[in-house]
């Protein structure tokens, strides 16, 4: 059985992974939106496709949800198989 310290460390590590996934998608969103914003500023254009409505946040949430589901499934499988090191 894992100690409280090991569980807290594991929770923090998983939290960092989830935060990294969200930050990565935010960076992708910024990289996609930046050229469109420059075009709008440079040419005073009104692009019909609103860049701020890109589904980056929905994709990021789906990605994090998928990670959590897969990780939880892995933990359950490891638990029922009886592996010693479940939180590693």
Descriptive account of the structure:
With 88 residues, the protein is mostly helical. The mean pLDDT is 78. The radius of gyration is 20 Å and the shape is elongated. It has helices at residues 4-43, 56-81.
Short description:
This protein is an all-alpha fold and 88 residues long. Helices cover 75% and strands 0% of the residues.
Secondary-structure element pattern, one letter each:
HH
Spatial extent as radius of gyration: 20 Å
- How many beta strands in the DSSP annotation? 0
Helix content: over 70%
The first-to-last residue Cα distance is 12 Å
Characterize the overall form.
Answer: elongated
Q: Unreliable runs, pLDDT <50, ≥5 residues? A: none
Assembly state of the chains shown: single chain
Give the DSSP E fraction (strand runs of 2 or more residues).
Answer: under 5%
SSE arrangement:
Blueprint lengths: L3 H40 L12 H26 L7
Helix pairs in contact: 1-2
Pick out its properties.
2 helices, mainly alpha, 88 residues
């Amino acid at each position: 059985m894992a100690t409280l310290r090991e569980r807290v460390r594991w929770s923090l590590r998983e939290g960092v992974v989830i935060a990294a996934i969200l930050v990565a998608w935010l960076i992708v969103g910024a990289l996609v939106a930046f050229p469109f914003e420059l075009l709008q500023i440079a040419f005073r254009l009104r692009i019909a496709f609103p860049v701020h409505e890109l589904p980056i946040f929905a994709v990021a949430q789906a990605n994090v949800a998928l990670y959590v589901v897969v990780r939880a499934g892995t933990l359950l499988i490891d638990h029922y198989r009886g592996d010693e090191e479940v939180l590693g």
